Amino acid sequence: MPNRAAAHASGSGKQSGAYKEIVEWIKALVIAVVLVFLIRQFLFSPFIVDGPSMQPNFETGERLIVNKIIYAIREPKFGEVVVFDVPEQDRKFIKRVIGVPGDTIRLEGDDLYINEKKIDEPYIKEAIEAAHAKGELYNLAGPDSNFPNSSNQEMTVPEGAIFALGDNRRNSSDSRVIGFVTDDEVVGRADIIFWPLNKLEFIKHWTK
After folding, report:
1. How many CB atoms within 10 Å of residue 44?
2. Dist CA 208 CA 59 (whole Å)
3. Gap between the Cα atoms of 48 and 193, Å rounded
4. Residue 85: how many other CB atoms lie within 10 Å
5. DSSP structure string for 8-53
6. Which end of the chain has a smaller Cβ tally under 10 Å, C or N?
7. Sheet containing 111-114: which strands, arranged edge to edge?
8. CA nearest 186: which of 52, 96, 57, 124?
9. CA nearest 66: which of 97, 32, 94, 96?
10. pTM for this one?
11. How far is CA 69 from CA 72, 181, 191, in A?
């Protein structure tokens, strides 16, 4: 009888230990899920590039990490790559900040003017030079290629908004078409390319 009692007690102890371990695993998984949710909701989130509008700097299929907290601390700046919601199309766009509140924007062909000062754009310099070498404009002529245009004639960026352009000026639906992007629509700044692995890098944000 004592031996049976001891064996029974030992078995109960093992079951109790296994139960406690399962509970701990469940707790850890729940905490992990909650942390992932909070991080994605408030701090960082993934984004997949879809389309040619940011070529030559970003390609379709590249996966980025978007910093969602930075613009809660400060306002967007010229040259930063941002992801924002486009409610009318129920999707997100990735573009580059060109104008901030108070800036007057003018785009004529490949010449960008901010507050009537011509601005160099190093992030597309080589692409512009390659087009010019072939006797072409990088920003093809068209009804909505320049700014202002018939779709959007207001040149000065209002408070609580930004003016954003795609790097691929020939093929980009951006503020020339959809107008200014409000602060509420901005998701965050694209900070890291994490896929494919051979392109893993921090994204460079240019300044004037």
Report:
1. 15
2. 24
3. 10
4. 16
5. HHHHHHHHHHHHHHHHHHHHHHHHHHHHHHHIIIIIEEEEE--SST
6. N
7. 105-108, 111-114, 117-119
8. 96
9. 94
10. 0.80
11. 5, 18, 12
Task: Answer whether the bond into residue 2 is a cis peptide, omega within 30°.
Answer: no
Position 207 scores a pLDDT of 82
pLDDT at residue 157 above 90? yes
* Catalytic, out of 20, 45, 53, 77: 53
CB 182 within 8 A of CB 160: yes
Confidence at residue 2, expressed as pLDDT on a 0 to 100 scale: 47
Q: Which of 45, 77, 92, 95 is catalytic?
A: 95
DSSP labels, 78-95: TT-EEEEEEGGGTEEEEE
Amino acid at 108: E
The tokens for 71 are 């613009």
Count of CB atoms situated within 10 Å of the CB of 109 = 14
Active site residue 95: yes
Q: Quick: pLDDT tens for 96-114.
A: 999 999 999 999 999 999 9
